[in-house]
Design brief:
By secondary structure, the protein is α/β, with parallel strands linked by helices. It has one domain (2-259): Carbamate kinase (3-Layer(aba) Sandwich), CATH 3.40.1160.10. The chain is 38% helix and 21% strand. It contains eight helices and twelve strands. An eight-stranded mixed β-sheet has the order 3-6-2-1-9-11-12-10, with helices on both faces. A hairpin with a 3-residue loop joins strand 7 (140-144) and strand 8 (148-152). Helix 3 runs antiparallel to helix 4 and helix 6 runs parallel beside helix 7 (214-228).
Length: 260
């Protein structure tokens, strides 16, 4: 089984509020379909970031810092609505590619404590995968026992699910070719990255609004993912090049391998 994330920077224009890259999204959906057709025993769980939908709204209301009072909770609902609009576009693109996709939004079943997911319904996802369906999760809002509200990134959702669904690979597709050894020049992609390497290279946040920490946050969460399950392969790579997501799903090794 493979967990595949379509990054928010890949499927939206993150600098423009609620601007989906529909042509890219449709291409990615076709590539997923081609991989599943080429390898009929492949099982994939798709996740996606919120890009210019959820991140813009969350930053406006501070939903990632908690919620208390009517205005904050109205903002919580507005962030959910924005994230849901993008989720609908993703699911629709997958279905247009003849894939039996279904949305499983974390906001409907996840409960956090200080930003960490403590509970989330796993059995429906497992049954969907067993039935040959294509479940879709996403970065989303969640109720938090400590803060009131939280934002859960796709990587955090993957981390919670990985120890329960036991994927063999986690593929994180964004717009960058991998983790760079020379950011911001972006000329050298690290073939692999270990936790001890993090202090020796510069990891920037996002150049646009991102309440989950941009590349630096993604690397830290990817390291946590890789450490969660022995032998789990975690990769950060670009989905901008046509065919790259399809090849990665079929065993390709693009971008940077994250090693715990």
């Amino acid at each position: 089984m493979i967990f595949l994330k379509l990054g928010g920077s890949l499927i939206t224009e993150k600098s423009k509020p609620e601007s989906p890259r529909l042509d890219v999204l449709r291409r990615l959906a076709r590539e997923i379909g081609e991989a599943l057709e080429a390898s009929t025993d492949l099982r994939v769980l798709v996740g996606h970031g919120s890009g210019s939908f959820g991140h813009q709204a969350a930053a406006r209301y501070g939903t990632h810092r908690g919620a208390a009072g009517p205005e904050a909770w109205r903002g919580f609902a507005d962030v959910w609505a924005a994230a849901s609009r993008l989720n609908r576009l993703v699911v629709d693109a997958l279905r247009e590619a003849s894939l039996p996709s279904m949305a499983f939004p974390p906001s409907a079943s996840a409960v956090c404590e200080a930003g960490e997911i403590r509970e989330m319904a796993v059995e429906p996802l497992a049954r969907a995968l067993e039935s040959g369906l294509l479940p879709v999760v996403a970065g989303d809002v969640a109720f938090d026992r400590v803060w009131g509200s939280a934002i859960v990134s796709t990587e955090r959702v993957f981390a919670f699910l990985a120890s329960r669904l036991l994927p063999s690979r986690v593929l994180l597709a964004g717009i960058e070719r991998g983790v760079y050894s020379d950011f911001p020049q972006r000329t050298e992609v690290l073939p692999s990255l270990r936790r001890e390497d993090v202090g020796r290279i510069f990891l920037a946040g996002s150049t646009s609004t991102d309440v989950t920490g941009g590349m630096a946050g993604k690397v830290q969460q990817a390291l946590a993912l890789a450490a969660a399950i022995s032998g789990l392969e975690v990769r950060i790579f670009s989905g901008e090049t046509p065919g790259q997501v399809r090849e990665a799903l079929l065993g390709g090794t693009p971008g940077t391998l994250i090693v715990p």
